[in-house]
Design brief:
Layout lengths: L1 H42 L5 H7 L2 H20 L4 E5 L5 E8 H17 L3 E10 L2 E10 L2 E11 L22 E9 L5 H7 L5 E4 L6 H10 L3 E8 L20 H14 L5 E6 L7 H13 L3 E4 L8 H7 L4 E3 L2 E2 L6 H18 L1 E6 L3 H14 L5 E2 L8
Parallel strand pairs: 2-5, 6-7, 6-13, 6-14, 7-8, 8-9, 9-10, 10-11, 12-13
Antiparallel strand pairs: 1-2, 3-4, 4-5
Length: about 400
């Protein structure tokens, strides 16, 4: 009997050990699966408790912490109030509210600080709200989002004008005029609608051979926006491809130029004028520029010199020929950033006030359209008149 009981106990203990080993093995397998899934989430840039919260990924965490510490010191040194908050994913959020003059230096230093610590930063969103513009930056180290920086820029109110001396009232006050031409229309659909949404009378310059040239030209006309021909002309850079059936070249004959113009006017039938696409070489060549302008004048079109080269003679030749013409003053997006374009819009207003009128040329880049959209409320307070380019011709 005792022997039977001992044997039963041994069998029971053995079963318990087997069950325990099975449980432990199952636990290890489950843990391995969890770790593997967490690692895959981490590699994919998703939230991972193990890799983001527990391990912190040494180098990434160290670089992010050094960046955060240096940024906090930078802000404190400039007397800019700030606060860091870390969310459940370990991402640090910074909110800064500052006056307009402090924004450009801080934006530049933020970029340099991120790059110094081996990270990258991206301006992911811009919102204009009444008297301020909000910028949302994402900062990444080792390919992972570590910081979100929200900067609220307060726009300065226009300086109050000094009291005017008492003089005889003027019959009419002439406001400075400024015009904005958006080039390269026709390479994408519905750009015309985005220009119309700006709520100001910009002029669209349509490339005749572009795939959406005809539909965009028609849509600009339907929306009541002025359109001109954006005529390709030979540049100085020989690497640029300039086929003879699309570009005016320095050796193009009057007949060839006339044929290009007639085709362009058929594609963009409501155009009242044209400006040059590229053309740094052609507009700097007096004989070639004269051949072009004579054909343009013959068809009753005005000419906008885009001034793609400081050596251009096209504007002065157009005046000699008695044509309606104007010369570009400002490029909005020669540097393709929101901040640069906004600064160029301010420069455009200053030039309009100095000279009575000014012309800017830009392109339908997202940063350009965003800056124009956000600048419209400010522009409407500047006592300048925004007009189509045809209304500032000489």
């Amino acid at each position: 009997m005792k022997k039977l009981k001992a044997q039963r106990k041994k069998t029971t203990d053995s079963g318990r050990r087997a069950a325990a080993l099975s449980f432990i093995a199952f636990g290890f397998i489950a843990l391995a699966i969890v770790v593997a899934l967490e690692f895959l989430d981490h590699k994919a840039g998703k939230h991972s408790f193990i890799f983001s919260q527990v391990i912190r990924l040494g180098r990434q965490g160290e670089a992010g912490q050094r960046f955060q510490s240096d940024l906090a010191a930078l802000l404190a040194g400039r007397g800019i109030a700030h606060d860091f908050v870390r969310d459940r994913d370990g991402i640090a959020h910074l909110k800064v509210d500052l006056a307009e003059p402090l924004f450009a230096p801080l934006s530049r230093d933020l970029r340099q600080l991120v790059e110094r610590h081996g990270g990258v930063h991206l301006l992911s969103e811009v919102q204009g709200m009444k008297e301020q513009v909000v910028y949302l930056y994402q900062v990444r180290f080792a390919g992972r989002l570590t910081h979100v920086v929200l900067i609220s820029k307060r726009m300065l109110a226009p300086a109050a004008a000094p009291p005017a001396a008492k003089t005889k009232p003027l019959l009419k006050t002439v406001r400075p005029r400024l015009a904005i031409v958006i080039d390269d229309i026709g390479y994408a659909d519905l750009v015309s609608d985005r220009l119309h949404e700006l709520g100001i009378p910009v002029t669209g310059a349509v490339i005749p051979a572009a795939p959406f040239a005809r539909s965009e030209a028609r849509r600009l006309h339907e929306l009541g926006l002025e359109e001109i021909i954006h005529l390709p002309m030979q540049p100085k850079d020989p690497a640029n491809h300039h086929p003879r059936d699309q570009f005016v070249l320095t050796d193009s004959s009057a007949a060839e130029i006339g044929a290009l113009l007639d085709a362009a006017m058929a594609a963009i039938p409501f155009a009242r004028g044209l400006n040059n696409h590229m053309g740094s070489r052609l507009t700097s060549d007096p004989q070639a520029a004269r051949r072009l302008l004579e054909q343009v004048k013959e068809r009753g079109l005005f000419f906008v010199d885009s001034k793609t080269a400081p050596t251009t003679v096209a504007f002065s030749l157009a005046r000699q020929l008695g044509m309606k013409t104007v010369l570009r003053d400002v490029f909005l997006d020669d540097v393709q950033t929101y901040e640069h374009t906004f600064a160029q819009i301010r420069r455009l207003v200053d030039l309009a006030r100095q000279n009575g009128k000014a012309l800017a040329i830009g392109h339908p880049f997202p940063s350009t359209l965003a800056a124009l959209r956000d600048a419209v409320p400010w522009l409407k307070r500047q006592k300048v008149e925004i007009v189509p380019v045809s209304q500032i011709l000489e």
